[in-house]
Amino acid sequence: MSRAMRIRLDRTICDGFGICAKHAPKHFSLDDWGYASLIGDGTVEGADRDDVLRALFDCPVHAIVEISGDEFDGEARPSPDTPAADETPVFEARWGYAQ
Questions:
Q1: Can you tell me the mean pLDDT for 66-74?
Q2: What pLDDT, in 10s, does the model give residues 18-55?
Q3: Structural domain count of the chain
Q4: Cα angle at 33 between 32 and 36, to 5 degrees?
Q5: Which of 8, 10, 46, 83 has its CA at a distance of 20 to 30 angstroms from the CA of residue 67?
Q6: Is residue 72 part of a domain?
Q7: Containing structural domain, residue 51
Q8: 88, pLDDT greater than 80
Q9: Count of CA atoms in the C-beta half-sphere (13 A) of 38
Q10: What is d(CA 30, CA 16) in angstroms, rounded to the nearest whole number?
Q11: Among the listed residues 42, 45, 44, 21, the one whose alpha carbon sits nearest the alpha carbon of residue 31
Q12: Is residue 50 part of a domain?
């Protein structure tokens, strides 16, 4: 059995194609205009993994992403002005912004 995964849906990118709801109706619903919403908290059990991956790969605008194990898992965003004493901060690769 496959391990559970987590996904995120960026509704600002969604263009309402509805492919995600077609492939994984247990995880995506469509509003009256055809735009997707995520059902639940984004946790995908192993049995639904293939359907959700098909929805992720077939999304024409890439509005669905898989969340890695430590990303957004209760971790606070680091402050750019308080680097650790023993390392140079590398915020650009992890958080997408520069100092």
A1: 65
A2: 999 999 999 999 999 999 999 999 999 999 999 999 99
A3: 1
A4: 90
A5: 83
A6: no
A7: 5-67
A8: no
A9: 19
A10: 8
A11: 21
A12: yes
Q: Please check the confidence at residue 82 and state whether its pLDDT lies above 50.
A: yes
> Which has the closest alpha carbon to 11: 91, 23, 28, 24?
28
Map 12-67 to HEC letters: CCCCCCCHHHHHCCCCEEECCCCCEEECCCCEECHHHHHHHHHHHHHCCCCCEEEE
Query: Can you give the pLDDT at residue 84?
Result: 56
> Any idea what the CATH number is for the domain that residue 30 is in?
3.30.70.20
Q: What is the pLDDT of residue 4?
A: 75
Average pLDDT (5-9) is: 93
Written as one letter, the residue type at 36 is: A
Is 31 part of a structural domain of the chain?
A: yes
Q: Is residue 13 part of a domain?
A: yes
Degrees, nearest 5: CA angle 16-18-21:
135
